[in-house]
Amino acid sequence: MENWILHEGKTEDLVLSTRVRLARNVERVPFPGKLSEDTGRRLLWEIEDVFYNGNINKEDFDTLYLWEMDKISKEYFLDKHIFSERLIENSNKAALITDNNETTSIMINEEDHIRIQCITGGLNLNECLINANKIDDLLAQKLKFAFNDKLGYLTACPTNIGTGLRLSVMIHLPVLTSNNEMTEIYKALSQVGMTVRGIHGEGSEALGNIYQISNQITLGHTEEEMAVNLYAVINQIVYKENNSRQQLQMKYKFELEDKIYRSYGILKTAILLNERECLDLLSNVRLGVELGIIKNISIATLNALLVAVQSAVIQMDSGRLMGEKERNVMRAKLVKEKII
Amino acid sequence: MLCDKCLNNAAILVLTQTINGIKYTYNLCEKCSKEIDGLNISYIDKKVMSIAFHDFLGDVTEYIYKPIQEDKKGELLCTNCNMPYSEFKSTGILGCSECYENFNSVIVPVIKRVQGSIAHVGKIPEKLVRESETLNLDELQKMLKMAIETEEYERAAELRDIIRGIQKDVK
């Protein structure tokens, strides 16, 4: 699988990345919320043992034990969407197994004992699903997963029961946002068992006009049906966004180009950039690239910036804690280096 | 609740059968539930005529291990992790996989509301699939009988599901 940040993709697709998550638990062992540090770590080592002794290339993977990590490192992985808040909350008994490419990872003792995650660039639900299933089958050879023929895989929260599968697509929707059409989309999606979240997952707002669209219902459909449904929904949203973009280009060509080039200009020259402003400006430039107005910036550069400009990532890359002003200076400098 | 059969002990098991569209429910104590394992289902026979053992295991029948454990305040508790049901009501998170069995009667409506369905049609762990392919029906039925005798209700339910799956395939 390809790291989503490096994914160039077809600009008209608007999809940045696809993520698949499978939740699994070991039968009868209390869920992580009820696990003591001692039992939690013992389970963790057992899972790790099964994984590394399975049919995988050991050199490609590494385990991070959260109790050995400092705060900045944890936030760094949080901003990169590799850790979740819950995993950090359970630091004393949690770990992450990840591949060098940061495309496949396993969170251990998050809300569930095991959360297999696969992330790739563009709209690639099938590739992600196949990859996640491979890891699931490997672990299931030795671990006895909590499973019930009626309810499927049993999870700590009944909202994940059944397939334990969350399919999630990150998508850039600047024009639907500025046309105030997102509320309608939220409503329509919830009626078909899907949900929209911001860039940082559950409960977060959509910074930089980037949304995560995922299935809310996990029981009663096969994994393949779920992928087909999400695929259909994404195609429809892409069509709607592209349609609105065309209309905008026809009616407000100069205003649109002005907004894109002004944003480009600020990113190239600003001395201080806060996170919100930076993500908004990057969204305008991304729109320019997607519409073919700006030609000398690649989508991969914008993807890399989307991660690099987040506060924890800036601090991690600089190797120290920083105040807000210092971060804003560093952020502006980082952007200038990439956007020429 | 008292056992429907002996009216002496507390019921721990609910047996539901649907015969010709009519639903029969029996609440049984541990002792009486053991007596209906294997082919000894004389009590049921009195109530519903001629139910063969394979029907008992088949599609029309299901039995659910029911929690009777309650704490001093009469609250529902999971027998595996000791979590009270009230905790789930405030956090939305269950304590262990057994909570789904132990809170079955109260949790199923919640799932139905959240998920809109209570029928898993997705992936099944490979091990379960393989187990059902490699063992023949007789062996499985023997294992089921043993599991019930040794009060391994979990294992019994699992085996029942495997047998049910094979019988469906045969049909």
Order of helices and strands of chain A: EHEHHEEEHEEEHHEEHHHHHH
Average pLDDT of chain A, rounded to a whole number, is 91
Structure class of chain B: mainly alpha
> Which structural class fits the helix and strand makeup of chain A?
alpha+beta
What gap, in angstroms, lies between the N and C termini of chain B? 38 Å
Largest sheet of chain B: 3 strands, antiparallel
Account of the 3D structure:
The complex is a heterodimer of chains A (340) and B (171). In chain A, 46% of the residues lie in helices and 16% in strands. In chain A, a hairpin with a 3-residue loop joins strand 6 and strand 7. Chain A contains 12 helices and 10 strands. Chain A is an alpha+beta fold. The longest helix of chain B has 18 residues, at 153-170. Chain B is globular and about 45 Å long. Chains A and B meet through helix 4, strand 6 and strand 7 of A and helix 6, helix 7 and helix 9 of B.
Give the topology.
The complex is a heterodimer of chains A (340) and B (171).
Chain A: E1 15-24, H1 37-52, E2 61-65, H2 71-79, H3 85-89, E3 95-99, E4 104-108, E5 114-121, H4 125-140, E6 147-148, E7 152-153, E8 165-172, H5 174-178, H6 182-191, E9 194-197, E10 210-215, H7 223-251, H8 253-269, H9 275-290, H10 299-308, H11 311-318, H12 324-338
Antiparallel strand pairs in A: 1-5, 1-8, 2-3, 3-4, 4-5, 6-7, 8-10, 9-10
Helix pairs in contact in A: 2-11, 8-9, 9-10
Chain B: E1 13-19, E2 22-28, H1 30-35, H2 42-47, H3 53-57, E3 61-65, H4 85-91, H5 99-102, H6 104-115, H7 126-134, H8 137-149, H9 153-170
Please give a quick description of this structure.
Chain A has 340 residues and is of the alpha+beta class. Chain A has helices at residues 37-52, 71-79, 85-89, 125-140, 174-178, 182-191, 223-251, 253-269, 275-290, 299-308, 311-318, 324-338, and strands at 15-24, 61-65, 95-99, 104-108, 114-121, 147-148, 152-153, 165-172, 194-197, 210-215.
